[in-house]
Amino acid sequence: MCGILGTLPISDPALFKRALDTLSHRGPDDAGVWVTNDVTLGHRRLSILDLSQNGRQPMHYSKAGLTIVFNGEIYNFIELRAELEKRNYRFQTESDTEVILAAYCEWREGCLNKFNGMWAFAIWDDRKKELFLARDRFGKKPLFYSLAGEKFIFASEMKAIYPFLKDIKPSKDFSWMARNIFLYESTDKCLIEGIKRFPSGSYGIYKDGHLAIRKYWDTLDHLVEVPAQYEEQCRLFRELFIDACKIRMRSDVPVGTALSGGLDSSATISTMAHVAKHTPGIRISKDWQHAFVATFPDTPIDEKKFAQKVVENIGIPATYLPIDPLKDWDKIEDYVYLFEELYITTPIPMIQLYRGVRDHGTKVTIDGHGADELLGGYGFSLLEALPDAGWNFKKIKSIFDVYDSTLIPDIQFSEKFKNMSYFLHLIKKNIKARMLNKISMPINRNPKRQTLDYFNQYLYGISHETILPTLLRNYDRYSMLNGVEIRMPFLDHRIVSFCLSLPWESKIRGGFTKSIARDALKDLLPEDICHRKTKVGFNSPIVDWIKGPLKNYFLDAVNSKDFKLCPLINSAGVKKEIENVIHKKDVTFNQAADAWTHFTPFLIEKAIIKRRRI
Questions:
Q1: Helices and strands, counts by H and E, the chain
Q2: Could you read off the pLDDT of 99-121 as tens digits, one per residue?
Q3: Contact yes or no for 596/346 (Cβ under 8 A)
Q4: 34: which strand partners?
Q5: Both 274 and 364 in a single domain?
Q6: For 57-102, what is each residue's pLDDT tens digit?
Q7: pLDDT of 440 higher than 50
Q8: CATH number of the domain within which 277 lies
Q9: For 400, which of 60, 190, 421, 501 is 20 to 30 Å away at the CA?
Q10: How far apart are CA 271 and CA 486, in angstroms?
Q11: Residue 116 and residue 24: Cα distance in Å, rounded?
């Protein structure tokens, strides 16, 4: 897990070093630069596998004239190495990086479909004088590029490209991105003019001044046959998830988990405990018993009591990390500079969590991201299954039962169903949401999308095009600005293909969302965690913060001259939104999140654009 940078043709050494050092948070353990007549490649290293100097990058594969800079992890590198050794390849390191080089030498771009992991890497072929770029299937690892004059630059973060640009100014699409927070990650659009986002599931070849990008992965092309019997589906899901956790426990440094007490992170660390006890394997870290719990004392979103039940069940300690907004608020512009994207809430809670992880000596966490999007964990997504239920009253009732218990647990479906106006309200809401979804959601024209049921078509959208890609980007920044790597077993590509191939009734079943995960792993979890219906989610108590400890900050900001003159916002409108959150009594999280979202471009201008102009 690292930061990468490269330029073609070569760059001034001092300028290149300054650019590479902007990624030092991603790779605090080491740095390396390699220069030829054609290319400059740079690497900042976070040492996870093969901690020796043998694992340094840029790494060379001399017999083929190949050199790589790599950010990520290939979890099945041990199996691939054994396969390549049978083909007479010999290895000098214990790293996954060298396996990538040998795999590329053997299979060229075909190696990408053999990898199980997350990656953004570049391989320079000195014989062909071409650069090969690739990004993992779901975009867990970031990659940006720019054509600045006659120079091609690629990097893990935009800030490493800034030194090569003549000016730092907002993109012409900035206002569109600010209005479409969950859409732009799946495009090539970036906040800064002249920089593009390399697409996930794609590779590119840069040669003779031209970059040709091709798609190598779409989950719709990798759907699988699933058993008709639900019990057999559960058995297969369990096998896949245990193996996904197992190979993600391969590490030469301590491993932990960001534990919330919800189903997803609880299932992850409980499965890790199962692996450690029953199926230990090669390179599996024995130092995995590190549960980190972000707490929000005296707020409705504090989940400490749920996390305690999980760690007590598997017999390990937990580290509780209270989140304090005032502790780091003086660094908010620095954090916005490091985060370099727009989002609906402040990054401070997540940044503080992963800083606590690193401060306690852990470099790797295995977390539960992706389950909500793949298995229908969001309450608002449940109504998308109504068309699949057709006119079957029993199936319709099962959906509304889960909808009620997820969003409004104190009122039962049977009471509401007697009220026809409430029923019509939900139908109207569903139709409206579906229409808006069709208008706004990026369209993947793969005809196989239409072979999915309605619910899975919706889940494909939020897991591949909108919500999940945005969250993956965010968590990369939260963790990597602290030098921490996040691994995600729910996003093992085998599990993603399996989950999208399941019928909707395997996900909404027995009064629960994410049913197959609950039923497949129920013996590993405390019963009340496995069947917990309330969902809080890891977020900030932004209403309480804006009304309380951050009130004066926001009032000073919206009344400042810089705020009034900021070209990226409607200053009068945003000021009114912020003041409403501060002064009105009944303010929702969504209202506060909207206010923050509309306020953030002001911070972007101060933290990135003005900073780079000075």
A1: 26, 17
A2: 999 999 999 999 999 999 999 99
A3: yes
A4: 41
A5: yes
A6: 999 998 899 999 999 999 999 999 999 999 999 999 999 999 999 9
A7: no
A8: 3.40.50.620
A9: 501
A10: 16
A11: 26
The residue from 217, 250, 281 where one domain ends is 217
Whether 202 and 226 map to the same domain: the answer is no
In a domain, 537, yes or no: no
Contact 511, 398 (CB under 8 A): yes
What is the extent of the structural domain holding 92?
2-217
91/152 same-domain check: yes
Candidates 28, 19, 149, 161; CA nearest to 483 is 28
Residue with tokens 């309380």: 548
Rounded mean pLDDT of 257-266? 94
Quick one: angle between helices 467-480 and 332-339, nearest 10?
A: 120
Regarding whether 26 and 115 lie in a shared domain, the answer is yes
Judged by phi (left if over 0) then psi (alpha if -120 to 50, else beta), residue 479 lies in: alpha
Are both 63 and 201 inside the same structural domain? Answer: yes
Instruction: Indicate if the pLDDT at residue 436 is higher than 80.
Output: no
Across 461-484, average pLDDT = 97
User: Is residue 70 classed as helix, strand or coil in its secondary structure?
Assistant: strand
Q: How many domains does the chain have?
A: 4
Of the ranges 28-32, 136-140, 406-410, 528-532, which one carries the lowest mean pLDDT score?
A: 406-410
207 shares a domain with 258 = no
Q: What is the residue whose two structure tokens read 């050092």?
A: 21
Average pLDDT along the chain: 91
- For 524, the token pair is 């590993």
Tens of pLDDT, residue by residue over 26-49, are 999 999 999 999 999 999 999 999
- How far apart (Å, rounded) are the C-alpha atoms in residues 471 and 79? 30
Pick the closest to residue 9 from 161, 151, 154, 211 (CA basis). 151
Q: Residue 277: pLDDT above 70? A: yes
Same domain assignment for residues 470 and 507? yes
Q: Tell me, what amino acid is at 493?
A: H
Tell me, yes or no, whether 49 lies in a domain.
yes
Confidence of residue 409 (pLDDT cuts 50, 70, 90): very low
pLDDT of 356 reads 97
- Are 493 and 591 members of one domain? no
Give the whole-number percent of the chain exceeding pLDDT 70. 91
Closest CA to 41 of 73, 14, 16, 71: 16
Among 498, 530, 562, residue at a domain's last position: 530
Whether 536 maps to a domain, the answer reads no
* Strand duo 144-148 + 130-135: pairing: unpaired
CB neighbour list of residue 18: distance below 8 Å, 6 or more residues apart: 163
CATH code for the domain in which residue 74 is found: 3.60.20.10
User: Given strand 117-125, what is the order of strands in its sheet?
Assistant: 59-61, 66-74, 117-125, 130-135, 202-207, 210-215
Residues 116/76, Cβ–Cβ less than 8 Å: yes
Asked, for residue 155, whether it belongs to a domain, the answer is yes
